[in-house]
Amino acid sequence: MHLSSTRFPQAFAALVFLALVMLSSVLGAQAPGAQLFRIFLKDGGTLVSYGEFARVGGRVLIPVPVGDVAAEPKLQVISIDEALVDWAATETYAETLRANRYAETSGENDFVLLRGQVTIALNDIALTADPARRLAMAQEARGNLAAWPSKNFGFKAAEVAQLVSVFDDVIAEMKAEAGQQGAFDLSLVAMTLPPPPVPMLPAPDIRTSLELAFKAATLAAEPAERTALLQRLAESLAFAPKNALWAPALKTRVAASLATEQRADRAYAGLVTSTLKEANTRASRGEVNSLQAIIARALRADDALGRKRRGEMAGLLATLDLKLIEAQRVRLAQDAWVLRRDEIRQYEKRIENPIDRIDGFRKWLESIRALAGPDPRYLRPLDDRAALALTELAAAAPPAEAQAAHQLFAASLQMTRQAAVLRRKAVSSNDITIARDAASAATGALTLGARATEELQRLLSLPAK
User: Which of 80, 359, 390, 454 holds its CA 20 to 30 A away from the CA of 69?
Assistant: First the structure.
């Protein structure tokens, strides 16, 4: 076995993994709790992250501890603007913290495995007969060894440098034996050393932890996150010991901030509810100018409230934009209706006689439907008048919009004639079955007539949503 680019990393990683599995129970008992990362701010302050933080979409996601970090504090994840962070200091501190944790846990075991791999590689090189192959193996092993500290938080970089020097000597000797002259390859000698570690800050006590959590709440980018963190703080402070002289002042600040956020929540909830209620009404009426005024009023209200709820306002304004489009569509339909209204009214006037006749047929049709008449002498006149109404209706050409109503009127009159004919036949034959058929026809005539009247009135009404 040798430290090659194809075999060494895989074998080494596998050995490290097995070693970590074997040591997991021991390390779990010895290792400290979650790491306390620090977010260094450009204003000189810091925040505590209970475990790793994350940068996502211009925000920094931070699990903020609330309470005693030495125990198991309650956590509240918030996001802050990444522009607030001093990233050079934050990343340097984080790398040092990770390096310390690595050194405390698996670093020593990984280094023991590395030394073993070095021994094996040197033995493999010594047992290889081909000089060119031996030189290639030594150079490859040396390169992988030199890269080990940068992949392992700079752990024992000085000791690794000594191991690298062993391979440098071996490689130099091999080249001399092979008669290769010239300067040594500096790319093989160069080795990146880790930056010097920065001092670790002590874990915050309960007071500092709560004060830093309050500072984090003031920087939270989302109001919901801010409110949730303030509520956790208020809950924790409610159980502060009486001898904690610092607690009342912090409790007052937290309560005031929480009350401010809750007032803002109520104010914006009321703004959204009232604005959308009015917008729905105005949009259904096609009142475009009113919708534009509502949008302007909502923006002024947001200014007056201090622009504290960007998310809620973004949602409200997006909805108002949709309502404005809806109002514009309704207004366009209303304007189109105005142009057609006179023609529809003229059509209504042309069919005035057939409509009056249909209204007059109602009492006779209701009697037929109830199998209670009318007087048989009225059945033929009912049929004749329905036929006359059909002729009058056919002479009145409807506009395109009124085609449906026109056809419904015609169908109603046809069913009226059918009801009269069937009732007369039922009376002459004394057949109850035919009388029931006549009742069904009368029901159809009444229903179709009512639908036709509703459709015509709809065409004459101002369009709405």
Answer: 80
C-alpha–C-alpha distance, residues 303 and 147, integer Å: 57
Domain ranges of the chain: 8-189, 351-460
Interior/surface letters 367-387, b for 16+ CB within 10 angstroms, e for the rest = bbbeeeebeeebbeebbebbe
Q: Which residues contact 421 (CB under 8 A, 6 or more apart)?
A: 383
Strand ranges of the sheet holding 54-56, from the earlier edge strand across to the other edge: 54-56, 59-66, 74-81
pLDDT at 461 over 80: yes
Residue that is written with structure tokens 């390859």 in the block: 185
Task: Please write the tens of the pLDDT for every residue from 352-395.
Answer: 999 999 999 999 999 999 999 899 999 999 999 999 999 999 99
pTM for the complete prediction? 0.61
φ/ψ (deg, to 5) at 146: -65, -30
Residue 81 φ/ψ, nearest 5 degrees: -65, 125
Query: What is the C-alpha separation between 424 and 347, in angstroms, rounded?
Result: 34
3-state secondary structure at position 111 = helix
CA distances 84 to 42, 45, 53, Å, are 6, 10, 14
- With bands split at pLDDT 50, 70 and 90, how would you rate the model's confidence at 341? confident
Reduce the DSSP state of residue 241 to 3 states and report it. coil
Report the alpha-carbon angle 11-132-9, nearest 5.
Answer: 15
Count the alpha carbons within 13 Å of 392 in the hemisphere toward its beta carbon. Answer: 20
Instruction: Report which DSSP code applies to 41.
Output: B
Q: What is the pLDDT of residues 279-336, one digit of tens each?
A: 999 999 999 999 999 999 999 999 999 999 999 999 999 999 999 999 999 999 888 8
User: CA-to-CA distance for 282 and 289, rounded, in angstroms?
Assistant: 9
